[in-house]
Amino acid sequence: MSMGCKDVLLIDDDEAVLESIGEILESRGFTPIFAKEGAAALKILETGPELPCLIILDMMMPGMNGWQFLEKQSAEEKYSKIPVIICSAFRETARSVRGAPILDKPVELGALMQAVHAFCA
Amino acid sequence: LRLKDDDSANSQARILAVDDIASNLIALQAALSEYELVCVQSGYEAVVAAKDEEFALVLLDVQMPGIDGFETAKLLRKDSKSSETPIIFLTAIHRDDKYVEQGYIDGAVDYLFKPLNIRILQSKVSVFVDLFRKTKEIQRQAEREKAYALKDLEIRLLKNAVEKRDEFLSITSHELKTPLTPLLLQAQRFLELIESDEIKTFPKPKLLKMWGLATAQVKRLSRLVNDLLDLTRISEGKLKLRIGEFDLCELIRRVIDEFDHEITKAGFKVELRLPAAVLGNWDESRIEQVVVNLLTNALRYARERTLEISVSEGPDEVIMKFTDSGVGIPEQDKSRIFSKFERAVSSEHYGGLGLGLYICKNIVQAHGGQITVDSTLGVGSTFTVTLPRTLVRAP
User: Fold this and answer.
1) How many CB pairs under 8 A join A and B?
2) Measured between CA atoms, how close is B216 to chain A, in angstroms?
3) pTM to 2 decimals?
């Protein structure tokens, strides 16, 4: 990922969540990229022109869920360095992923941007 | 765990002694002093006594006035309590093989001849009393095991119910929190735009889109809350109907119009095969709920993007069918999907509370109708709702 990277990969099965977080990121000059589940997200990582500087990941999704995605992502050296923020409505679920920063749903705008800025300039 | 505690009653193996001559009974009591004897002096009294209590053994005199020993044995065999009780005939005169044979036919297990040899009597009685005690012990053991097995089953069912409830609570909180994220973010974004005065120059279509997104979340939340309220109403038996005449076809067209945006977005093609009008007396808002539920289920689960909704009329009922060309529902899931907290696809997380079809079933049944599903794997599913034209009160 280059220093000037502004791409943020949002993975969530809920369209309204994608849209609202996406609009906020856009308003701050980031480029949101949307995926509705893990497999679609992996495809974006594989085929996209550039790797995102951050992944915001929901855990409970139909298709490939958050854990399965994390397993694949961390196993692939190219992607494993991309920071991941867990964004879940299940507190316990989010905390089951060790070491990852967490955004509890409902997400606050301030908390969202603080988390994003921690990883992307 | 409560087991019938009749150990003391059962180890008390009592013997029924039947003889018309009192002194013979006294002699028996003396010889069998270590046992408890119930002494009666006629076949009739013996039958009555054996109705109340299961004896370990019957010592039965053959020659008695009134009903004799053979008759008494036949009667004892007919009664469920004494049908299996071993009978030892006591006889002085019927030594003849013919009589002995008759005695066995009538249910004797043994013969003792008077004058009685006390040792032989004691040892035979001891064998039968022992047998009785052991049989009872085996029975009690079997009962205990059965009771434990039942208890075990009960515990497993309860655990399962608790697990289902916990899972439901967890899903409910997840489902309620999910719309709050876009709602809260949009509200904070609006505040940000207002405070920075940016709102004056912000493109109006984009603003309206954000506003639409926020209000859609409120509707979503209110639908979830309504489902939860319906669940409570159903489990309390308080699902009330407000019956009035309306046109089912018009209702379906209206719902399809309202969901036009979702249908288009999901890439769905909905084909309507409806008569011009089908009037009936039902609860309009409840039937609308059924239509919306079946439609949103098709949108959510069907892989092939087509749905056909048809309405046909019988003399007494109206039949509404939703046919999708989806993945289909496996046979073993067909009844389960109408239960609460169940989805055909349960291992993966799909949005919603898993209450839709359960509520549909209860609404349709409250109208005296029924909802069924036909499905072929890989071909699709048809949900059929049959509604009586006039309300039949559900029992």
Assistant:
1) 72
2) 9
3) 0.64
